């Protein structure tokens, strides 16, 4: 693959996401407890977010120092006196992971790790090559021991060209049952851990999450043969993230089998429909539709679906516009399914919103 488009970037991105997944797995195993969920203690996620972002940013900045990085976190809180304990945990995790993956020979000083986290402040846009990173996508899924993802995408001139998504709790074999929330604490975790990779024009692939030379398997969206009757949703667990009631209305319009639907957190939904676990992903606006989707929540997943034979748009069928900064300010919501069925799905979304008296959401923001 050495002579292929973005071959070096592809290899480095895989290494970066693998390093981050080592961190997030360790954070869950050693820092997340039942109290993290019941008492809404977000400190394990905070540690995981900072640490994973630092690791990815370090790997990327060493290989591609001229590229910008759009990330979620800044190190401001870690630089304060109140952040001393948190900073110690973050730097320890980052150094351990970077050394394990042979990214550094010895530990980095705290100051360098904090500066590395702050590399994620790039503003995005269409005039520079940059990376978009979500270090832990699916916060609540991570805390519950459910699905979450480490998501990384490369954008060139405002277009997603490469995506890598690490899903530590997703079975590599789609026939293997997904673990229920928290089950990974007490069950055999063999077979869990899927890494999805895509480059524009080269297709989408899945591979084990560990190993530098792991075999890759091409993935394709399921052929619905012209009907949504056997199709299933991959939809959000959290009702606040998408209008699940509207999903049910759309399912009725299309005659879908809602028994096939699965709920999970994070961009793992994109990965799941890309390989045929489900068929339709809808993220429909809630409230007045003013929320602007973040580019890091959709960049890697969008290309993964497109390269697997799908189409991703907003609720009105407009292509997602990644050229306008850190958010998808020109779009509302997300609609994804196989390319040949996408126009029918968009039409059903419009019909459902008209029925609900929310047709104004179809207008451009």
Automatic annotation (TrEMBL):
Example GO biological process: phosphatidylinositol phosphate biosynthetic process
Keyword ATP-binding on entry: no
Binding, Mg(2+): 72, 134, 136-137, 297
Cofactor(s) the record lists: Mg(2+)
Protein's UniProt name: 3'(2'),5'-bisphosphate nucleotidase
Enzyme class: hydrolase
Source organism (scientific name): Malassezia vespertilionis
Keywords assigned by UniProt, alphabetized: Hydrolase, Magnesium, Metal-binding
Pfam families: Inositol_P (PF00459)
Record EC number: 3.1.3.7
Family, as annotated: Belongs to the inositol monophosphatase superfamily.
């Amino acid at each position: 693959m050495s002579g292929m488009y973005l071959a070096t970037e592809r290899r480095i991105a895989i290494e970066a996401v693998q390093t981050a997944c080592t961190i997030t797995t360790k954070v869950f195993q050693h820092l997340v407890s039942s109290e993290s969920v019941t008492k809404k203690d977000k400190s394990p996620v905070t540690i995981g977010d900072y640490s994973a972002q630092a690791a990815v940013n370090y790997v990327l900045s060493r290989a591609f120092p001229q590229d910008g990085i759009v990330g979620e976190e800044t190190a401001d809180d870690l630089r304060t006196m109140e952040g001393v304990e948190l900073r110690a945990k973050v730097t320890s995790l980052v150094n351990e992971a970077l050394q394990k993956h042979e990214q550094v020979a010895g530990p980095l000083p705290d100051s360098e790790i904090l500066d590395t986290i702050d590399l994620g402040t790039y503003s995005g846009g269409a005039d520079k090559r940059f990376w978009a990173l979500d270090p832990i996508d699916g916060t609540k899924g991570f805390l519950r021991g459910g699905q979450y993802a480490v998501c990384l995408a490369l954008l060139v001139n405002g277009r997603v060209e490469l995506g890598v998504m690490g899903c530590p709790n997703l079975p590599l074999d789609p026939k293997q049952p997904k673990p229920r929330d928290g089950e990974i604490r007490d069950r055999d975790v063999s077979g869990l851990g899927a890494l999805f990779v895509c480059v524009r024009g080269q297709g989408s692939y899945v591979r084990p999450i560990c190993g530098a030379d792991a075999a890759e398997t091409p993935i394709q969206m399921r052929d619905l043969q012209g009907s949504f009757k056997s199709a299933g949703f991959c939809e959000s667990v959290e009702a606040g993230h998408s209008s699940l009631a509207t999903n049910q209305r759309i399912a009725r319009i299309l005659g879908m089998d809602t028994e096939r639907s699965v709920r999970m957190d994070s961009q793992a939904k994109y990965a799941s429909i890309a390989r045929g676990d489900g068929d339709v992903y809808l993220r429909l606006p809630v409230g007045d539709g003013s929320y602007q989707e973040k580019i890091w929540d959709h960049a890697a997943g969008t290309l993964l679906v497109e390269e697997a034979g799908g189409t991703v748009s907003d609720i009105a069928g407009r292509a997602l516009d990644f050229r306008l900064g850190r958010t998808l300010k020109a779009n509302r919501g997300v609609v994804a399914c196989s390319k040949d069925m996408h126009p029918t799905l968009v039409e059903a979304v419009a019909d459902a919103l008209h029925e609900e008296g929310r047709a104004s959401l179809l207008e451009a923001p």
